[in-house]
Amino acid sequence: MTTDGSVRRSTGDLNGPLGVLDSATGSPTGVVLSVSDAVVAPAGPAVVAKDPAPRLAVEVTALVKRYPKSPVNAVDGLSFAVRRGEIFGLLGPNGAGKTTTVGVLTTRVLPTSGTARVAGLDVVRDAVAVRARLGVVPQRVNLDRSLTTRNNLVFHAAYHGLSRADRTARADELLDRMGLADKAKVSVDQLSGGQSQRLMIARALMHRPEVLFLDEPSTGLDPQARLFVHDRVRALREEGVTVVLTTHDMDEAAKLSDRVGIVDHGRMLTVDTPGRLVRSLPGSATLEVTVRGSDVPAVVLVAALAELPGVERVEQVGAPDPAAPDGAGGPDGDEPGGGSSGGAGGPGPDGGGARLRVYVAAEPAALVGPVVSVLAARDASVSDLSIGVPSLEDVFIHLTGRDLR
Ligand code: ATP
């Protein structure tokens, strides 16, 4: 027992005693996340929710988790909600508290204070009932190596009380959906990383969970397997399954999630749709302009462009790439919203020309005309112009900074 009255259980070695025990009983080994020192909440009575279809699939209110002997809270007053049937991306830098939060939501970690509800049920008081309503796909493969692919599913379903007929039919259906029908009888040792990942998703779905927790679902997958998994996740949403996705892959989060929450230092920084978050990023849409032919120094062009309404700032990012057609600038490896490689006081556009980056507050296309006019009025002809659109990664870096954790 721990000091907070909960039973401590090591989740570090997935092939260790816990894995063997689980395989022997057919209990779900797939519920272990990467929390190395998690606790199992005492199982409360399996209270059935009064509202059979609560509007919110996940409700976290003022959640705090402080691990024993730690001077700081791993989760520090976190609040957010996930609607039924949405794909919610939980993002944050290393150590932000995502795994701990998911640990609480999946009843593996006991909170210090605050509340968390899944499918309308309190994760501490109603832990047994909560576990019946959720599925977990961990990042690390924790399939039962002593069983075949199909029996990994069948044993999991038996643990969750599915009838014999239901579990075999469900196993075959899910093997088919996950593209694993031809692997049904092989040992899981013979599965590739991508096949194992798909099998873990199938296993988590065997007992028809209302909420699925997916931890880094695409790590180590090839592009085909990644697309396949993404399609399956979207299909789950169509069936009304709520998906909580934890990922460091911003592209994946932006493509899959209806909404994302960005966590840092155990606190929720923002929750919104990827599109709205990107649009709300100040000054990160850009116009990159290559100019030639003017005797006017670049610093003057920069100052003139900065006066335009809707322009946040302007910087010179270098001379045009001489190899590019018509002197157009090549990429300098800097994403929109990032720093620059040149200063506004550099050489003028005559001779070498200049590449200017214009950071705009609103729709960048609307500023193309005014930018070109300002430059033309100073005899600088535009030889290349491109619009840079910010990404969820820019939002992430803007909110959480560039410091390594
Ligand atoms: P990552 O992206 O690296 O997986 P994360 O956002 O999932 O990180 P957590 O694993 O929840 O973050 O960790 C949050 C904080 O809690 C970190 O400072 C971590 O060191 C600490 N922590 C996590 N597990 C334990 C534990 N069992 N005992 C003590 N501290 C822990």
Describe what you observe in this structure.
- The chain is an alpha/beta fold and about 400 residues long.
- It folds into 2 domains: about 5-280, P-loop containing nucleotide triphosphate hydrolases (Rossmann fold); about 280-390, Alpha-Beta Plaits, CATH 3.30.70.
- It contains 12 helices and 16 strands.
- It has helices at about 15-25, 100-105, 125-135, 150-160, 165-175, 195-205, 225-240, 250-255, 275-280, 300-305, 370-375, 390-400, and strands spanning about 5-10, 40, 55-65, 75-85, 85-90, 115-120, 120, 135, 210-215, 240-245, 260-265, 265-270, 285-290, 310-320, 355-360, 380-390.
- It has a 6-stranded mixed β-sheet with strand order 8-9-10-5-11-12, with helices on both faces. The protein has a 4-stranded antiparallel β-sheet with strand order 4-3-6-7, with helices on one face.
- Helix 4 runs parallel beside helix 6.
- The protein is elongated.
- The relative contact order is 0.12.
- The model is unreliable at about 1-50 and about 325-345 (pLDDT under 50).
- The protein binds adenosine-5'-triphosphate (ATP).
- The site of adenosine-5'-triphosphate (ATP) has 14 residues, from helix 2.
- Adenosine-5'-triphosphate binds near residues 36, 70, 74, 97 and 98.
Set down the secondary structure blueprint:
Layout: E1 7-8, H1 17-25, E2 39-40, E3 56-65, E4 75-83, E5 87-91, H2 98-105, E6 113-118, E7 121-122, H3 127-133, E8 134-137, H4 149-159, H5 164-177, H6 193-205, E9 211-215, H7 223-238, E10 242-246, H8 250-256, E11 259-264, E12 267-272, H9 274-279, E13 285-292, H10 298-306, E14 311-318, E15 354-360, H11 368-376, E16 381-388, H12 392-400
The structure holds adenosine-5'-triphosphate (ATP).
